[in-house]
Amino acid sequence: EETGNVLGHLHESAGHILESSLKNKLPTWLTDPAEHKQAVHEEVNIYNKILQLVDQMTDSRERSKAKRLAKLLDKHLLLIAFDSCLITLDVVKNLIKEERANCEVIVATGAKASQKQKVNKMFALGSREKNVIALCSDAMSEGLNLQQASAVMLMDMPSVIRIAEQRVGRVDRMNSPHKQIEVWWPKDSEAFSLKADRKFFERYTEVKDILGSNLNLPDDLIPEEVQVSGPSTAEEMISQLEKMGREGRTWDGLRDAFQPVREMVDPEDGLVPVDVYDHTRHSKARVISTVSLVRSNKPWAFMAIAGAEHGAPKWILLDSMTAQPVTDLEEVAAALRGLLDGDLEDRTMDKKASELIEKFLNRILETEASLLPRKKQRALNEMNLVLEHYQKQAEQIGDKDRIEIVKAVKNLLEIPTNEDERPDLDAVAEAWLDLIRETWYEKLIQRRRFKPLRLKDIRKDLKSKPISSERIVDAFKKIPAARPIHTRVVSAIVGVPD
Known about the structure:
The chain is of the alpha/beta class. It has four domains: 6-56, no CATH class; 60-190, P-loop containing nucleotide triphosphate hydrolases (Rossmann fold, 3-Layer(aba) Sandwich); 194-232, no CATH class; 287-498, no CATH class. It is 44% helix and 10% strand. It is built from 18 helices and eleven strands. It has helices at residues 6-13, 33-56, 60-72, 86-99, 113-122, 161-169, 195-210, 234-247, 259-262, 274-282, 329-339, 351-366, 374-397, 400-410, 425-435, 437-446, 459-464, 469-476, and strands at 78-82, 104-108, 132-136, 151-154, 182-184, 290-295, 300-305, 314-318, 422-423, 481-482, 489-496. A five-stranded parallel β-sheet has the order 2-3-1-4-5, with helices on both faces. The longest helix has 24 residues, at 33-56.
């Protein structure tokens, strides 16, 4: 569709009436050529006035943003700025170059995977890059961890709390290497605020509630910025985000999964004194592992386990020697509050405590699969069941090669003794999911009911149409080894009875 040249098209259309079957119901300016010509001229005059006003506008807003970003590089090695308008990102990039030619400015909109990967790499935790500014669209505001940056600027007012939280969340991480981060909000004049839109919605709501309205707006059409309760200024947005942070809520009203962890260092109700937490957090001392022993009526253990490779660390709690591990953060935090309540007494390390720790470590080793996401736990379970079937089939027909291959893959799930290395269970689960993907999609296409497809739903298909030995070998030939879980415990609290 041809766009642009609005004034030219209007001039050409003046006085030209289109035929319509609704002629008797249309206003005269749509049926009378002279009146139509007059109406078009009035429209052209309005556009000309808009042009005159636009010509009076300067680029001072964009220049001030560019100057601020250039100035912030004196304090911050890496900066991120967000704007919902893609053209603005390129304009600001050029203006920054005028202010500070020796810095690198990247525009990342998510359209080019290479730019997204570049920003992700340069701003990832531990990056040694400096003097870099990333100008991002909201396509970059979710699913990326850019916490090596110590400041983020919101060049335009986020339309909803969700977007504001996502933007700030790129740098506001629990594992941020910075003692504090800065968030710069836009402080626009009334002309650029969202209150006019909100007023429309208020009037619409009043008319609808009191008189009834013929205009029904779909819920998903009404953005948060024009709802009565929606924030319209930076101050209101900041206030709402701070309130949500104190309450441990996210933009959708759900409780933040890490809130129970943050509450452990709450000044009023925390288990860990704030000064102790801050000292430990910012200490440059390299601590391999710490173990604290407390006197207890029964044996229990809490352990923080480093993730394999770059995986996230895990919290795990065992409230007895035979208990299933508790890994949900909220449940672990609640259990710790109960176990560490009241007057606690430290306990010295002795043979009994050492043996108890060893038993708990072995219990965690036995249940290591429970540290995986639920889907991967189920994948390992299904993998074991299907391979058991393949082994029995091979034994019935005497296929020794098949038996050897299946046994070798099943051995990946075996629990090692003590501190022996074991295959990375996460990688094993991934390999199985990749191996059965074709069967999964076939079942998905055949499905008639709108019902979630579960891994166990394709078990019969995998048994009736066995996967070839060649594909099994190929899928599992490059499984990496994981460090023994004994060596990945970075912190532990153990309750030891006398």
